[in-house]
Amino acid sequence: MPDMPFNTPNPATYDLLMQRRSVKAKDMQGPGPDRAAIEKILAAALRVPDHGKLMPWRFVVLTDAEREKLGDAICDALIKEQETSEKTAARMSGHATQGPVLVVAIYNPKDHPAIPEWEQTLSTGAACQNMLVAATALGYAAQWLTGWGSYSPSVRDALCMTERERIAGFMFFGNHGDCELTERPRPEFDNHVSWGWPAIGSEG
């Protein structure tokens, strides 16, 4: 429960949103957030819009050697599913150890007669975004990645996921170190925002 009243104005939060920048996981340095900090980040993930309170997400925290287990699972999956050479697959195993701490965000949809799965997908995306923002607010580097491993049935099996569950993202957290951040191209506001009722032929 928050220590202050709900929806308390905080202009600094808007500044954080406008200045937030992902840090490449491979550029992160250790030790990264400790358990207390990760719990704060995950607590923010749980505070997202969730129609029907279905909680269509869960999270697996991997640190230290546990990340290597996931890397081995990705390596084995590449050999099994893609017939990739062991040498090439071994290089891909490093995907899971790029950042000091890895949270696997798992999409866990529920059946509901009035709430479509699409809304649950949106809620899961919001949870991942909240993690990025919370980590940044706490002073940590963060990046949301997917990649081949997130779509592999063998990797899902290795993580003891159900048939219906999907990996929404590999969420990496660490410290900025000497990483110098630069802005990337952002969308032009007027190209993606319209005011008033759409006119015929104005879509897109």
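(ticket continues) Second input and output from the same batch:
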Amino acid sequence: MWRGKRVYLIGAGKSGLAASNWLLSQGAELCLNDRKPFEAFAEDSQKELTALESRGLTLELGAEPNVEGWGAAYVIASPGVPLTLPALRQAAEQGIPVTNEIELGWQIRRPQVIGVTGSNGKTTVTSLIGQIMDDAGLAFFMGGNIGTPFIQAAPAMKETDWALLELSSFQLAGILSTAPKIAMILNLSPDHLDWHQSFDHYVESKWRIAAFQGPEDRLILNYDDLLLREEGNRRLREGKAYLPGGMRVQGPALWWFSRKEEPEGGVYIDREGWVAYPSRSAEGGGMIRIRPVREFALPGKHNLENLLAALSAGLALGIAPGTLRRSAASFRAIEHRIEELGEYEGVLYVNDSKATNPDSAIKAMDAYDRPILLIAGGDGKGVPFDGVAETFVKKGRFAALLGKDRNRIKEALQTCGFSHFQMVGSIEEAVEACHAQAKPGDLVLLSPACSSLDMFGSYEERGRAFKEAVRSLTPSAYRDGEGGHNGEKE
């Protein structure tokens, strides 16, 4: 299929390099474009680019994309490259397929995909599902928007293999046929509006996770998210989805999860505080209970939602309730997402660098009852900070603001009548400022509500800088978080 085909790739990051390697092995004629000049790449990337060039790849670095000039028959854009880019719009208008490495991996082997998306919680839920699958003895690949690009694993997979993929709105916007066996949308709130141009386009991109599903597939939605509930019910009414046990239609079986209510066909919290779900196999055709909520270690209401989502995926996989009970009891926070580092002089330090949008930061603040000293700021991606300010002023004592959009956060705080903040130039300075203001019983929370890319290479790098700054207070100031992963494109 690919031998002799002229393929134009935009973006020489992890996924672009992985796609280039595979396509070259298939005999494709490739041009790899990136706006960054060669010398701006890390040494390892420079070596890989040079090796690819020696195999026949055409490099087009430090330049705007020129799809038409190269005569491409197929275009693959890396996550983060806007599909509104003039070169991509022009290619689409000319009938040239424009997609990404997720779609490429799917077209190679079409394994059984579990796709997880949402504005917040994607990495946590994907990791929790991975733990459930591990506990159940299921072999799987985990990657996509975290860790290893899908294209690196897809060529060696079989159609019966499982691929657990975290999927961003960037990746979903470019898929052309990918059909997850199990698709999940966790929640919807404004994010990446600098890329999508509008919230409607962002939401539309998220829904593409279910665009190619059929009646043998599963779609899992958060019943407590009104946008998801409204659209899910519309699909049920129009025969584009069906509830478990109902007549199969063209679309997938729709399963709900809910922290607040008891929806038909889903996982919920019963009146006695147990995680439960309806089952025909239960005595009297009732419900099966998994565990009481009080036994879960993850802090915050949002993490309870994440747990319900992950257990829903486990049920869709056919995993036994006993295994789900054991997995649920052992769930722990992942690195950089409400990661409690420990207490120093009675002050709790929490690394929530993964909070790259306002809604995620709001959930982190809501997870604690302590007075908050907040470290926030970075690249806001065009999203307003009104909600962050309104939540913070209810129990916030001090804010250290940094990064590209620190003034926008300051203005939102001032609008709410809050003025106890300090503008800082680094994470280290922010930690020092919060330490000087903190009292026993307080919480110093790094929850930036912004992307890190104006100051750091990733949110992981930002989180590590915070942890090192806290460590500098005293070696016993915190304990290292367990686990971790390779990182999400913001």
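Agent notes: The longest strand covers residues 29-34. The chain has 18 helices and 20 strands. Closing as not reproducible unless the customer responds.
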